[in-house]
C-alpha cells in the first residue's frame, strides 16, 4: 500500500501559487548573518566558532549559511568538526570582512544600497513571521492526523519479485523454456544467455516492483502467476521474455517517520498559503505592469488608448489554485 503523496498537488501552480512556494522555500533557505558583539548565544546550546574584529560568529550562523546554499537541510545536523562546516565558516568570515570593508567605504549610504538593505530586512521579517505561524501550526498531532488520513486514502497494491531472461527470437526463448523444464537453473541461464545487461549479472533479478510500473506485456504475463511460476515466453519491445516469479507480497506503506518530512513540507505550504490569502484579502495591492507576459518580445503592443471594440473580450478569471482538498 503506497501512502498518497500530497507533494505532487503543488506542481503546476499559477502566479499566486508560485509566490507561495517561493516564500516557503525562502523560509527554509534564507540566511541572515547576525551582527554585533553580543556574547550571549543567540539560541540555547549555540557555541562561538570564530571572532571577526571582535564580532562573534556562532555555529548557528554557519548552519544558516549552509542551509541557504542548499548544502544541508533545515533539520539536518552540521558537525562543527566536519570539513563542510570549516568551509562554510570561512565563507561566513569572508562575507563579514567584505561587509565591513563596504561600510568603511560608505557604500551603504547610497540610495541603491538603502533599497537593497530594506529589501533584505523585509525578507527577514517575513521569514520570521512565517516561522512563527508555521511553528504554531505544525505539531506532532497535526502530522499524525494527516498521516492517518493519507493511509486511509492510500490504495493497497501488491509487490512482485521476479527474474528475467530476455532473448532475441521466439525460437531462442523456446529453447530456454525447454532447458528450464529439464531442470536447468533460471539464474544460471540468465547470467549465461540473457540479453538484458541490467539484470543478467545478478541472475536476472528485477527486485520488488508493482505491476503498474512495468510495461503492459510484463504486467499481463504476471497477472495470476504465483510464486515459483515461470511465465512466457512473451514478446516485448526488446525481444522475447521469460519471467520466474520469486515472491508476491503486500506493499508496505511508509512509516510515520519516513513520511514526516513530506508531511511537514505540505503543512508548511498550506500554512503559508492561508497566511498570504488572509494578508492579500485585506491589503490594497495594485499591479502596474502592462501587457501579456507571454507575448513574443518585439511584437507590437496594443495602444493603451485603443477603443473597447478593438480589444479582446474580457475572459472570466480562472479560479485561484488551491492546495489539497
Automatic annotation (TrEMBL):
PROSITE patterns for this protein: PPIC_PPIASE_1, PPIC_PPIASE_2
Q: What is this protein called?
A: Parvulin-like PPIase
Keywords, in A-Z order: Isomerase, Rotamase
Q: List the top taxonomic levels of the source.
A: Bacteria, Pseudomonadati, Pseudomonadota, Alphaproteobacteria, Caulobacterales
Q: List the source organism.
A: Peiella sedimenti
Q: Origin, by domain of life?
A: Bacteria
Class of the enzyme per the UniProt entry, highest EC level: isomerase
Q: What is its EC number?
A: 5.2.1.8
- The segment annotated Disordered runs over 289-325
